[in-house]
Amino acid sequence: MKGKIAFEEHMAIEDTLQDAKIFAGESGQWDEFAEEILDLDEHRLATMDRAGIQMAILSLNAPAIQAILDRDEAVETSEKANDRMAAAVTAHPDRYAALAALPMQDPKTAGEELKRCVNELGFKGALVNGFTQRDVADSAFYYDIPGYRDFWQVVSDLDVPFYLHPRMQIPERCEIYDGHPWLKSSPWGFAVETSTHALRLCGSGLFDDFPNLRIIVGHQGEGIPFGLWRMDARMRFSPRGYCGKRPLGDYFREHFHVTTSGNYNDAAFRCTIDTLGTEQLYFCSDYPFERMEDASEWFDNTDVITEEQRQQIGRANAIKLFGLDL
Questions:
Q1: Which of 93, 196, 205, 251 is deepest in the core (most CB within 10 A)?
Q2: Full-model pTM
């Protein structure tokens, strides 16, 4: 399929490049990987062309801003990353758009940076790499807590999507993975961390306060579509601390949008479609941590969907979600 739109497509600046090294594969691949994630010109555009991707909506690599303990450094680095993405969009306006990196260490400043990115730079929303650390290494701030309500007010007022992207849990909070460090990262821990954060948002009353919020998660929903029926079934018996006014599944189905990034599997695809339908489902690749060609080879040929649905998931849904002029 030609003309696809993808928006879990990562870039880095020199300040955040080393954060990507742990995910780059074998050590001998690092130089090539570093070139790919830093490049926003000919190499990336040629790769997009081979994969049939018309537009990539850029975002900063993980954990990047969310792992910076100092507030001022987080603000400075997010501004630098956003300005770099803005320059790429200016250079290639028909191929790139961008999602803002935000210094969530300070919710008010994060809201101001989001306003700058959307209103002045033309960004299409935000992508934040999971929980934020602040001041001390052993810290983790999740965005369902009351201190972030003013930030969510800004997101609601701007009416732009918010991509909740994974990151690994910090070493001080990883006892369950002791002896099995491979579990902490993308094979398992990414989905555990991100799905739990997403469910916290559902159970916090956030969507009752801001009914127009749209949250994006990747990797076919981080396992939530598979488990959603059981969650709702068991919530009838153990709702302690649940602040939502409606069943959890109602919030997920209404407010969450799901991409295929890095999960090119027909069984997962069927489950996600059965749970959400096709109107909130999107093609993405997760480049350069995954290959655009692999994502497209699977998506362009899977028989789980019709050709009409392929156009919808691969292109039309993203145009609607981000208000793209294509």
A1: 251
A2: 0.97
